[in-house]
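BUG: 3D viewer hangs when loading the predicted structure for this chain

Environment: internal workstation, default settings.
Expected: structure renders.
Actual: progress bar stalls at 90%.

Input used:
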Amino acid sequence: MNGAPSQLKTLIELAQGDVDTAAQRLGRFQRERNDVDNQLQALIQYREEYYTRFNDAARAGMAAGSVRNFQAFIDTLDAAIEQQRRLLAQASARLDAARPEWQRQKQKLGSYEVLQARQDALQARDEARREQRDADEHAARISRLRASQQP
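C-alpha cells produced before the viewer hung:
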C-alpha cells in the first residue's frame, strides 16, 4: 500500500487537470453561445428599427426604387438573422455536448477524492491504534518497573 497514496494523488491531480480543461472548454462554449446570441438579438433589433423607419417613410410617400432598396435590405437582414439563428443552434449544441463531459470529469475526480478520504481515514485509524498500542506498552512497562521496584 506504499505506492497507492502517491498513485492516488497522481490520479487526483490528473483528474483535476481534466476537470479544469473541461471547465475551460465549457466556459469558452458558453461565451461563444452568448456572443452569437447577442449578435442575433442586435440583428433582430436593427431589423425592427429599420422596418419601422421603412414603414414611416412609406406612409410619407416614397419612390418605387426606394421601396425596392428598403425591401432588398430587409431581405438581406432576414437572411443574416436566419444564418445567425443557425450559428446559435450550432453554438448551443456545442455547449450542450460539453456539459456532460465536464460533469463526467467532475464525477471521476469526486470518486478519486472519496477513495483518498477513505484511505486517509484508514491511515488515521491505523495511526491512532499504533499510538494507543505504544501508550499501552509504555504504561505496562511503567507498571512492571514499579512492581519490580517494590520490596
